[in-house]
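in:
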């Protein structure tokens, strides 16, 4: 098993940024790392966790750009109905929905669908709502 080093970490982060899954990246290392070992590294190193999180967001952003390019191609091909298959369109729907779901988990404030607001006051104060006039 590989030891934690800057080179190994940079290779993993680069692989994730390129859109590969963490499972494939870890298995593809010269000296493979188990997912458990990687998880332990993340748990002990907040900076590494932040880099990994940002790499995943960058990868999803790249995948969204690819989906947009493919959608643009579908629109251009739609001039000839035989050039666009429904299976291709449905696959793009599924892929974009999956990317949206992943982004909602990584960045719920920006991409989440929840519309919940939580308000609290100190226990000894009354909660008051005032409408602006």
């Amino acid at each position: 098993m590989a030891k934690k080093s800057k080179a190994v970490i940079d290779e993993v982060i680069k692989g994730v940024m390129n859109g590969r899954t963490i499972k494939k990246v870890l298995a593809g290392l010269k000296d493979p790392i188990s997912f458990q070992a990687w998880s332990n590294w993340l748990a002990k190193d907040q900076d590494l966790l932040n880099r990994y999180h940002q790499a995943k967001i960058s990868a999803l952003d790249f995948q969204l750009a690819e989906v947009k390019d493919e959608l643009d191609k579908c629109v251009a091909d739609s001039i000839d109905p035989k050039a666009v298959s429904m299976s291709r369109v449905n696959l793009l729907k599924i892929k974009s929905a999956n990317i949206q779901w992943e982004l909602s988990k990584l960045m719920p404030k920006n991409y989440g669908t929840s519309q919940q607001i939580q308000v609290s006051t100190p226990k000894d104060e009354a909660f008051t709502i005032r409408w602006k006039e």
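note: The chain has a mean pLDDT of 85.
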